[in-house]
Amino acid sequence: MHNPAQVDVQLEKKGLLHRLNTLYHERMLQLFLLITLLHWAEHLTQAYQIWVLHWPRPQALGFLGYYYPWLVHSEWLHYGYALVMLVFFFLLRRGFTGRSLVWWNIALAIQFWHHIEHFLLLIQKVSHTIFFGASSPTSIIQLIAPRVELHLFYNTVVFIPMVVAMFLHMFPSADEKKNMACSCARR
Membrane-crossing residues (predicted)? Predict the structure, then answer.
């Protein structure tokens, strides 16, 4: 039997990244999911404002934008969220094994691209230089799809593999469970 004080010292020596993927993995995944769901609520509110309430797109800014329009117009907010998502994907990656790791990596790869798109938008906004001959800051895929629909698409294609990864992580096979170092498994 290990002495709890010795275990704490061993965890302390391994560093924050190790603790995030062992001791705190489940709580960090819950926090990440909460942040993601709040972001979804914003996008779904915006979609409701556009397609149900028939608000003009410039006025359909979601819940936060209704009260703080300057915040939603800030490209820093959008880039910051894309970066936070990417950081969570990288930080929590080591806690996944087997099939859940494959799905987590898929979500990470898509989010990496989504982050690049937001980085392009941020560069254009900050430098006052518009790319691609557009009339306002534009991402690459935005050349073929409107921004609201594009971000609903991006959020969907990142969220689905993320949720699949979390589900498989919570319900691992016997072999996958043997390789897990966190308390996320439910069976």
Answer: 31-56, 76-92, 101-123, 152-171
